[in-house]
Specification:
By secondary structure, the chain is α/β, with parallel strands linked by helices. It is built from 3 helices and 8 strands, in the order E-H-E-H-E-E-E-H-E-E-E. The strands form 2 sheets. Strands 1-4-3-2 form a 4-stranded mixed sheet, with helices on one face. The protein has a 4-stranded mixed sheet with strand order 5-8-7-6, covered by helices on one side.
Length: 145
């Protein structure tokens, strides 16, 4: 039986990081629990103090097909290179110059939302189609593929 998965990110600013990834993936912030019109209303009802309201955040695929991304506040900063990273499929079906142009356009768009461009890897056929390595606003590496 296949299982649903969730990707969990440690973060200094869960709300900010979830907003970045919602933009990067075309996701949306997860709706508040049933019976509440907003997260503020839900958190008030749960008795969560204001200083704890950015302890967690989540984004979901609006189509319901992709995994949920969960962001949790941790006290320590990122220490080393990720052992697992996301590949954002920004140029499916494209090859060569057209592929790299699409990746460059997406890299530029994500930089405007707080990402950092780390490196570009040129196509190297037959197996290497080319990609761009990026980091999200908290330094988590991901690839535009």
């Amino acid at each position: 039986m296949a299982r649903d998965v969730q990707f969990t990110f440690d973060a200094a600013d869960p709300g900010g990081l979830s907003a970045f990834w919602a933009e990067a993936l075309g996701y949306r912030l997860q709706d508040p629990p049933g019976g509440f019109d907003s997260w503020e209303q839900a958190l008030d009802a749960m008795g969560v103090p204001p200083e704890r309201r950015n302890d967690a955040s989540a984004v979901v695929d609006p189509e319901g097909a992709g995994p949920r991304l969960f962001f949790q506040r941790v006290p320590e900063p990122k220490q080393a290179k990720n052992r697992v990273h996301l590949d954002v499929r920004a140029a499916p079906g494209l090859e060569g110059d057209a592929r790299m142009a699409a990746l460059e356009a997406e890299a530029e768009r994500l930089v405007s939302h707080g990402a950092t461009r780390l490196s570009r890897h040129e196509p190297a056929p037959p197996l290497g189609a080319g990609h761009i390595v990026m980091a999200d606003p908290e330094g988590n590496e991901f690839c535009l593929d």
